[in-house]
């Protein structure tokens, strides 16, 4: 689901009248706030919904399938959402 589809769904579910551009702005603000919180604390938890957390992937050696040349994939950080057991 992209941001525009999410905004349309948000407009339908919202009790007040919103335009799609206002909904997109609100969604962008929420996502930016979550990004900042993850960067500061390393984890953001939503009760009965789930948690966003930072994972550090380990470096590994892979080979190019065409040339069979071995190369190293460097470690990187990714964000993962883990859903709660209560979420259906």
Automatic annotation (TrEMBL):
<comment type="similarity">
    <text>Belongs to the bacterial histone-like protein family.</text>
</comment>
<dbReference type="GO" id="GO:0003677">
    <property type="term" value="F:DNA binding"/>
</dbReference>
<dbReference type="GO" id="GO:0030527">
    <property type="term" value="F:structural constituent of chromatin"/>
</dbReference>
<protein>
    <submittedName>
        <fullName>Integration host factor subunit alpha</fullName>
    </submittedName>
</protein>
<dbReference type="InterPro" id="IPR010992">
    <property type="entry name" value="IHF-like_DNA-bd_dom_sf"/>
</dbReference>
<dbReference type="Pfam" id="PF00216">
    <property type="entry name" value="Bac_DNA_binding"/>
</dbReference>
<dbReference type="InterPro" id="IPR000119">
    <property type="entry name" value="Hist_DNA-bd"/>
</dbReference>
